[in-house]
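Course assignment 3, question 2. Fill in each field.
Student: A.L.
Task: Predict the tertiary structure for the chain below.
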Amino acid sequence: MSVQSEAALESGLIATLRSMNYEYVHIDEETNMKANFKKQLEIHNKKQLAEFGRTGFTDAEFEKILIHLEGGTRFEKAKKLRDLYPLDTEDGKRVWVEFLNRTHWCQNEFQVSNQITIEGRKKCRYDVTILINGLPLVQIELKRRGVELKQAYNQIQRYHKTSFHGLFDYIQLLVISNGVNTRYFANNPNSGYKFTFNWTDAANTPFNELDKFATFFFDKCTLGKLISKYIVLHEGDKCLMVLRPYQYYAVEKILDRVENSNDNGYIWHTTGAGKTLTSFKAAQLVSELPDVDKVMFVVDRHDLDTQTQSEYEAFEPGAVDGTDDTSELVKRLSGTSKIIITTIQKLNTAVTKTWYSNKIDAIRNSRIVMIFDECHRSHFGDSHKNIEKFFHNTQMFGFTGTPIFVENAVDNHTTKEIFGNCLHQYLIKDAIADENVLGFLVEYYKGNEEVNKGNEDRMHEIAKFILNNFNKSTFDGEFDALFAVQSVPMLIRYYKIFKELKPDIRIGAVFTYAANTSQDDELTGMNNGFVSDSVGEADDLQEIMDDYNNMYGTSFSQENFRAYYDDINLRMKKKRSDMKSLDLCLVVGMFLTGFDSKKLNTLYVDKNMEYHGLLQAFSRTNRVLNEKKRFGKIVCFRDLKNNVDASIRLFSNSNNTEGIVRPSFEEVKNEYVELTTNFTDKYPNPSSIDALQSENDKKDFILAFRDIIKKHAEIQIYEDYNEDAADLGLTEQQFMDFRSKYLDIYEGFTSDDPKPPTDNPDSPNDDTEDLSLKDIDFCLELLHSDIVNVAYILELIADLNPYSEDYEAKRGEIIDTMIKDAELRGKAKLIDGFIKKNVDDDRDNFMNNKQKADGTTDLEERLNNYITEERSKAITCVATEEDLNVDILNHYLSEYDYLQKEQPEIIQEALKEKHLGLSKRRKTMERILGKLRSIIKTFSWD
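Answer field:
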């Protein structure tokens, strides 16, 4: 039986949309797309036009609209879509043109088209396009059943590079489907496949099949609402963010309750599921309701106050007003501020201290909606009661990933008792199944089991273990780690032990301390002064900060502790290339809740934890990033297994922890051995891969070895894993050799002049059952290390001694290191040439100039000069081979460097002068572009 083709999927989707009252419109290319846009825009703005006795725009007026829409980045265009445009008409009037009705989102004009052709470096025909008021706002890319869904995602990324432009820059949402799996995501180039989402109902039942997805997601009112209300323009990153279905349903539940009752409620969304974005959108939309006077977002710690303020500002600058102190809070409450962020402590002071409460007495009866962050903490005491007592017309909603139930209640109070019923839940088991957060690998240290947890020998043993295993856990420092300990004194002792061990990694610590602890010691009462001038924890903290200052060139002290905390926060997140990261941070309570970093993957625990505190801490490690980060790793130095199991059962609302906690090493090892055994039965040695002739045989090898790559990435992070073990089915050397063959096939498939993958769903190969190499995701991210970069390679070159006996071996290791990395293997020849010129052929000069007087080397400068020279030679070679002016090629490459996007029209214009036939011109253009892409790939190295 044949596999359903893309064409059949496309026809079925269009039929579904037409049955949902979408108008079908046939659009060949950009020209008649603009004509359709003009017509639809006139229909949408007919009321505004009618006020001036008009039914349409003149050509000159419409040209003004097109010019207005053309300027700016994709992010700026998303703003234009949502704004009114003041059009000055030819007869001297001003018409406010609306591109999207965001208030009455059902009242937009919905159309569907397919196979719209856009001319880029080749003609691209987009599968299905949804137009709203004539603008293409949703693009749907289809693949036939059986093709990996990621290939549809990859094709959209190609469109970003080669053809999306003009009105297609207004796309807000992208949808990909192979019939049985369907996902959506916001229009951000290269956002990552991990950030595509399935659509579900309110109970988190997914609609994966295209027909079900279309029925619910493309409902005109649902789609209109999503685009109008549930896409956030993130000012910090200048990108679009779309809410996931559970976020959408949670906000809708809060809006419904505010509009239709005075009852409170809480949202139970697991930690790491995007609570900040959900709460921001809830606060924003509630504040727009006509009978709501103010919205307050209340947190329970100062660091979360400033952090949430910063995150809200990134979503929409000026959307919320912060409160540095209680006076500022009172000023905001009595003023015109609509959304206010504050702490529960400041709010409690404002309502209990007469000096402040008198100033806000006038708003006691105002309609105020309060949204409480992390409502499993700080809402069970007098502060919460005081707030409820003061405000007479308030409605309260809580957000938490770990509610307080009877089982984990400290004082017999529960979240339901304080906030009422749960309005929506999205549990950790749901989030892991949806790949919105990661599961946990929990391992228990099998070393010294001293009853006395503060035993010095035990602590030394643990510190050495962490240092010896740090690179394994964090992929050679690509990720970072937290070490949670029981108390501040224990943290200080651990820190000093680490310092004694002279670690190669950067270690810091952060904690709070009591300002006036007892200073009694052995000499107290003897009238002989103190044993030491140290005031204890305060001095220890300053010593830790001094070490930190020496490590990073900073100048923090206890007087600016907040800035120190913020600096650690930034370094742990590894977001800024100009900041050296912090590899390991010792903490007691800080960073174990609220801290959100995709680059944190490991938590070491020498601390008693249970229930919500345990899951909150573990969840610091489980943010989704890429294929390499497959789970959060937890290493426990105490027997917490019963506590872990109890916590997982409680907060997953299930007795089954499978899928949340990773299987044991033995289980994963058995799976790995089964894969490698079956593999080597078919491919006994790497040379057997050379005998593979057909694409189908190569495809079978790629699929089989890809499974091993994935399992290898998983198993190697277990503490019990030993790459030299003899019972794994493949030695590490064999794995590397097969990996080289794997990459060779990939390089051959993506060589300079490949047969381009078709973007035409009606191509002859469309209905074949067999998948080709172009349908396969090679998972190259698992074969690339962020640590192997230009700085790392330069360090290896700087360590070379061309007169030493092991020079050739070390030189070979550098090239091998690059060849083994999926991203850098194409640059190995370049580095080999650099070493030959600057080391092999210039030994004395290399040794004499290894270091400058200031301790630096000039290797980086010499490499940059070498790359520039070789790049220029490569460009000149292409110009000669293709009989093109070298300035044209340099112009093309400089435009690419600036825009990070191909501009094929530059080459197209140059080829027109050669008067080649249409077929020959296309082949020549594809050949030249292939060579230019090769230059970009080889010589672009940040």
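Instructor remarks: The first helix runs from residue 6 to 19. Residues 752-769 have pLDDT under 50 and may be disordered.
Grade: pending
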